[in-house]
Request: fold
Amino acid sequence: MEIRRLAGIILLILSAFTGTIAFRLATPAIAFYTRDILKASMLSVSIVSMSFVLARAFSSVFGGLMLERGKRLVYIGAIAMMGNALAVQLYPLTSTWVQVAGIKLLNGFLNGLSWPMAQFVIAVATPKEIRARVTAIYFFFGSIASLLGNYVYAYTIDLGLGGQMWISSAFFILTGLIMVASYILLYERITPKRKKTPDGERPSLDPKRVLIIASLMAVIVAFTSGEITYVYVSEALGMEKATTATLIGWAGFLAAMLSYFASWLADVRSERRMVLLTSIMAAVSPLLAAIKTAPTVFLGIFLALFAFQSFRPISRKVLASYHRSSLAIGGVNGVQNLSTFLGGMLFGFAYSLGELHGVVTLNLALLAFTPVSVALLWQGVKLKGGGK
Reply:
């Protein structure tokens, strides 16, 4: 690859690192602030967490449609990222969980504009033969930052929510500036919409089936998403907040590191087989996490994160070949976020069901995902590819 193209891709990967640090530092801080300081119920924490993904779902699709009207609008994504710096400053001013949820909606809208655009640009700017692996590296750097962000939270607890949000704001501004520089370098390669021609580039898997699998997988792995994860693990296993954040960060890091190999196999072997494998792992993850022991809870979280981290670059590679690629990638982000919202709300409502005690103690809220797990397995088996 020429220097300009390579530099732009590297900057986008760097933006995944800095932006995720900003987001991941804020997530546990807001989670424990809402639960412990504002005394919110688990359902209220779920609403706070899922309000973010609900807003992100709709703005992801809106961003894809907007980008089709002119590639110059890609810079709006970078501006939206910097807007998060102002939004997070509002959290220390809240006195009710409803106010926190309102700010989360704003954060979700801004993130829905920024991240799908970045994912679209890195997918279309990368050569097809290495697209899944480069996109996996992009998400991997985000996961490294997720681990570090949890450590930053653990080591800055004494600063309080206000101090932590200033750190988060600084990283959000830096991320937006990096995105601007990257888009300038890659501007000539940004093609949101192409003419559909018989000899044009085509997706190797059925895009509609990919969207269905993305939706079902996102419903299931919702228990690893946002504030609800930290609260569940801390309360289920009786762990300290800092320890909880650190261990969840390590689970995400290891999952992302191993997901690169799944992306490599998708590039050089079979995309369909890797989608089937990730579907199986996602399907069994809530069943394992329902067993209230540290090994099974973290194994369940790890499998869910590994499946999701592996599936994301494969799905972006497939959809980048679609003639309306910006809308397709914005759409899969929207579908996944809406499904995560539904899964998170299911978990929040079912949390009051309590536990089933026997040889092992089972969390009934996680067992409620069983029908979705069965549906995901069925869709994974039915998936057919037109290429590899």
Observations:
- Residues 67 and 80 are 14 Å apart (CA to CA).
- DSSP finds 14 helices and two strands in the chain.
- The radius of gyration is 20 Å.
